[in-house]
Amino acid sequence: MSNTLLPEITDALVACDAASAVALTQQALASGLEPLTIIKQGLVPGIEQVGERFQAGEYFLPQMVIAAKAMQQAMAVLEPELQARQQRVDSAGVVVIGTVKGDIHEIGKSLVATMMSASGFQVHDLGVDVPSQVFVHKVRETNADLVGLSALLTTTMTAQREVLRALEESGIRDRVRVILGGAPVTPEWADSIGADGYADDAVGAVQLSKRLLG
Amino acid sequence: MRPCFKLLSDALIDQIIAEGLGLLMDPGVRVHNAEALELLAAAGAPVDLDAQIAHIPEELVRRALETAPSEFHLYDLDGEPVVHYGGDSVQFDPGSAAITILDSKTQQQRPAVTNDFVDFVKLVETLPQLDAQSTAIICSDVPEEVGDLYRLYLALNYMRKPIVTGAFRKDTWWTMKELLETVAGGQQELVARPIAIFDVCPSPPLLWSDLTCQNMIDCARHRIPSELVSMPLAGATAPVTVAGAVVQHTAECMSGVTICQLAQEGAPIVWGGSPAAFDMREGTTPMGAVGTWLIDGAYTEVGKALGMPTHAYLGMTDAKVVDAQCGLESAGGTLIAALAGVNMVSGAGMMDFESCQSYEKLVIDAEIIGMAKRLIAGVDPREDPIALTLMRELGHRADYLAQPHTLRWFSHEQVLPSSVIDRKSLDGWKRQGAKTAWERAGDRVRELLAGYQPTSMSDDMRAELRAITQQAAQRFGLGELPPLPEA
Predict the structure, then answer these.
(1) Domain A2-84, CATH class in plain words
(2) In this predicted structure, what is the pLDDT of residue A118?
(3) Residues in B touching A184 (Cβ below 8 Å)
(4) How far apart are CA B438 and CA B324, in angstroms?
(5) Residue B445, SS3?
């Protein structure tokens, strides 16, 4: 019976059914399946199918976000088992993300964080109105590979430059890639303040990050 | 008879208001402004100072809705009351705070500079369909810190119509007030005949940021009108249903009216917004979606039921060029706004959500606005009997073109479009160069700008405005303001 559990986990994610995904993951563990097998053959194919359906225009953002959250909940079930076995999932990279100081716009940043998390990045979301030094501190603490800075207002875009300066002054700018997002942000602005890239939506941010860290 | 348009039953309006009031108590409103929290606490609202959350009781809201004026006027610079906030009056101003202009030559967006906004203000002056100016464009050739007041400074030099504006900071509001008082002739004069209204924007869900809350309180204390711009994003920062988004809008606006009236009873404030039905594929905030129009129309009905003057951001497009999508979305939103009886409709000229202004779109939108105003003027018999006498006189002759009745009424019955609208024969259209709407709009823009007449503002007053603005700009490291383009 356990051989049907993995495709059922996949189907639960595709159906955006978090409760079933979690319950089936627990059953799979109880039946003796290895956590890494559950991830690779159950969860990852599910989230990939959701991504494909989104790209095809069949799925919309609510399905993407809810499936990503279901995946996170199922991963939380597996995390202690992975630790017990001293195993870990290969991460696409460690990401620190937030909306810059003075700006409280959350949706775009959170969407990028969710999509990156679902795409295998280890994401630390600092929230909104984040001072430059908090970015610097988190990059140090997590040894991050990439920083994502969101700003929705022309008046707060300048705070993206402040974060870059703060990273520079702390001597860790060379260790991380910095990408920007937000309605008023342009590739020219990213260039002019010395960022590594700019994306205009969440899917683009994932692609850009994979390219920069690939 | 005016055409009627109704989205909500009385029972649904009552339920929306009841749920809005319920939200103000639990979970309450986040108020990140010390003065507002003090005002609310002093009035008896339970306030959690550490969490910066106010729980506003119904009786406070009801009292505020009583003391807020149900109507007021904005005045032009000649002292005439030309904009009426209240009842079912419908007026239009351009969408505000665009960060780019659609370049007339390249049809590409580029950052806007002083000259762009000055031309835009002149254009709005020459278009009779537009009732007010707005600080429509942010100029990239001055520091961002003075972007708000610089727009107002520029507009005041070229406008006669009243203006819809807003501040980006707490301190710049004071400079903007000084500019307005200078033009109005003093503080008392500005109170007696306001020439401007400030947009104040709560953040969804249920948050008053320090900046916008302070702007609202400062406006109230000086009896300068303010306009609530609540912006539920249905499906992202607000419930996805139209009615659910309107519940959130109602709660945010009621909290704004309450804080405003606690700061100064009787201060004019408008029930308005810029909601959107979140796009579930792109994650954007479409202004051209029918879901957006429904939220606007529905909250306008709630505002009217509470006796408030109303405002909405409508008549915009998400298109990036002036194309068929641009026309259909702008027309749809404008007609809904007019039918809903929104007192001030902000949006003309605006595209790419709320980020770009276009001269060409503005003159096309002026035609749409003309049509919308005509639509709500409705059908009038004009004479009694309507046509019986006239038609009996003519018998079966098709000779109406020659009748005094036609001469008397044709320009009232019909909207006479400018050359932007093509109604020529096919041959006639070809002879004129077979021009598209974009090209005809460009011709019209040039023609209108050439006919702009400078205002009669004295050189002394212009110098005073410049000195005030220059002083503010110097605080942010701008040595000399860009030169003012020729009037």
Answers:
(1) mainly alpha
(2) 78
(3) 99, 355
(4) 11
(5) helix
Interface membership of A202 toward B (CB under 8 Å): yes
Distances A18 to A39, A63, B71 between C-alpha atoms, Å: 15, 11, 51
Distance CA A213, CA B409 (A): 71
The first and second tokens of residue B242, run together, are 């139209």
B227 forms beta bridges with B199, B270
Q: Is the predicted ipTM greater than 0.90, yes or no? A: no
Cβ atoms < 10 Å from Cβ of B223: 17
In a domain, B327, yes or no: yes
Give contacts of A 94-113 with B, CB under 8 A: 104, 106-108, 111
What residue segments make up the domains of chain A, in order of their start? 2-84, 93-213
CATH of A93-213, one of 3.30.70.1730, 3.40.50.300, 3.40.50.280, 3.90.209.20: 3.40.50.280
Residue A106 reports pLDDT greater than 90: no
Contact B283 A104 (CB under 8 A): no
**CATH code, domain with B248:** 3.20.20.480
Task: Tell me the mean pLDDT per 10 residues along chain B, length 487.
Answer: 93 98 98 98 97 98 98 97 98 95 96 97 98 96 91 98 96 97 97 98 95 97 98 96 98 98 98 97 92 98 98 98 98 98 98 96 98 97 98 97 96 97 97 97 98 96 97 88 85
Nearest C-alpha in A relative to B204: A105
Spatial CA neighbour of B163 closest among B373, B344, B337: B344
Q: Give the domain range for residue B217.
A: 66-377
* First-residue to last-residue Cα distance in chain B: 43
Q: Which of A16, A66, A152, A154 to mutate to test the interface with B (most CBs of B within 10 A)?
A: A154
**Residue B300 near residue B88, CB atoms below 8 Å:** no
Contact A60 B138 (CB under 8 A): no
Cα B480 to Cα B470: distance, rounded to the nearest angstrom: 7
Amino acid at B406: T
Q: Is the pLDDT of residue A1 over 70?
A: no
Q: In the block, which residue shows the tokens 């912006």? A: B231
Structure tokens at B67: 């003391």
Q: Is residue B98 part of a domain?
A: yes
Distance from CA of B255 to the nearest CA of A (A): 19
Within a domain: B348: yes
Q: How many domains does chain B have?
A: 1
Phi, psi for A174 (deg, rounded to 5):
-70, -20
Contact by Cβ (8 Å): A178, A150: no
Smallest Cα–Cα separation from B39: which of B28, B29, B50, B47?
A: B47
Alpha-carbon distance B455 to B459, whole Å?
A: 11
Chain A residues with CB inside 8 Å of B209's CB? 104
8 Å CB contact of A184 and B355: yes
The amino acid at residue B19 is E
Instruction: Give the separation between CA B333 and CA B345, rounded to whole angstroms.
Output: 10
Cβ pairs bridging A and B (under 8 Å): 38
Residue B192 lies in a domain: yes
Q: What chain A residue is nearest to B238 in terms of C-alpha separation?
A: A107
Residue B398 backbone dihedrals phi, psi, to 5 degrees? -90, 65
What is the rounded distance in angstroms from the CA atom of residue B45 to the CA atom of residue B23? 14
In one-letter notation, the amino acid at residue B311 is H
Are the C-beta atoms of residues B220 and B260 closer than 8 Å to each other?
yes
CB proximity list for B456: less than 8 A, separation 6 or greater: none
Whole-number Å distance between alpha carbons of B150 and B114: 9
Smallest CA-to-CA distance from B159 within B462, B476, B464, B475 is with B462
